Amino acid sequence: MSKNRPHGRYGRRNLVRVGALGAAAVLGASSLTACSRADTGAKSLDDLREQGYITAAINNEPPFGFIDEDGETTGAAPELLREMAKELGIDEVRAESVAWDALIPGLNSGRYDVVAAGMYITPERCEEVAFMEPDYKVEQAFMVPKGNPEELESFETVAEKEDVTIAVLNASVEQGYAQAAGVPDDQMELAGSATELLDLLENDRVDAVGLSTFSLNYQMEQRGMDEDYEVTDGFIPVNEEGDPESPAGGFAFAKQNTELRDEFNTVLAGFKEDGTLRETVEPFGFDESSDPGDLTTEQLCAAG
């Protein structure tokens, strides 16, 4: 998967540009730059190149980002982040798995440089973080016992059945979709990771798990659950106004760190054009249906 490009098409260009500034110019600007960064907490691309790594938060949700059996961080988002970082001259991605509802607080506190968890881009989250352009889109689905005995097809069908319980990530869009569909709190079990959600299902504590189609299909295969469970057909959820949503996601940077976000966006645009995006995420079950096409972060932030 790695292309062994030490600075890549975009990173090398920027390194040459920085190198051409000359020692006097760099020294002359250093005190001002240090002051502005201290005020904002933002890291520049040069900061990350100098320290040699970027810190990322994941949620241990296969296939978006997870810890494999060897203890290594992998998944569609971390692998794509590694490829983009290489292009920009950043040698290493250091990732930590945290609960879903701790991702944005950790980012905004400066503990992480980026969230690499396949986070859906929503208007509410756009108020808190600076999203890159979307790198995938997806539909929602449920994992249910084989045969789908409760005949669950959407969050609305969950709300209609008072005895049905569904597990979703705490502070996730699925939780919001369920609430918008009228699912009461006592019919929802909240968890901090996808692994915990599936444990609830396998331990018969819930009737269904609500996640994206890619996440559920990948995890069912990886955990060998296909004999006893199935993933329902994908569906497009609706918001509180009854309008259809467009589930799509990408990387999130701190709100004030738009300059760094834009550097990564430049690389992502190139990856979309030359096929590197598809090549990187395909091993994790992302097929052509995940292509975000012309969908933009501006549109997703303004939705609803």
Question: Would you give an account of this structure?
Answer:
With 304 residues, this protein is α/β, with parallel strands linked by helices. 40% of the residues lie in helices and 19% in strands. The longest helix has 18 residues. The N terminus is likely disordered.
TL;DR of this structure?
The protein is α/β, with parallel strands linked by helices. The chain has 13 helices and 13 strands. It has helices at residues 8-19, 23-40, 45-51, 76-87, 103-108, 123-126, 155-160, 173-180, 194-202, 213-222, 258-274, 276-281, 297-302; strands at residues 53-58, 66-67, 73-74, 92-97, 114-120, 129-131, 136-137, 140-145, 166-169, 188-191, 208-212, 229-231, 248-254.
Rg, nearest Å = 20 Å
**CATH architecture title of the largest domain:** 3-Layer(aba) Sandwich
CATH-assigned homologous superfamily of the largest domain: Periplasmic binding protein-like II
Judged by helices, strands and strand pairing, the structural class is alpha/beta
Task: List the defining traits of the structure above.
D-Maltodextrin-Binding Protein, domain 2, 304 residues, alpha/beta, globular, 40% helix, five-stranded mixed β-sheet
Task: Give a topology summary.
Blueprint: H1 8-19, H2 23-40, H3 45-51, E1 53-58, E2 66-67, E3 73-74, H4 76-87, E4 92-97, H5 103-108, E5 114-120, H6 123-126, E6 129-131, E7 136-137, E8 140-145, H7 155-160, E9 166-169, H8 173-180, E10 188-191, H9 194-202, E11 208-212, H10 213-222, E12 229-231, E13 248-254, H11 258-274, H12 276-281, H13 297-302
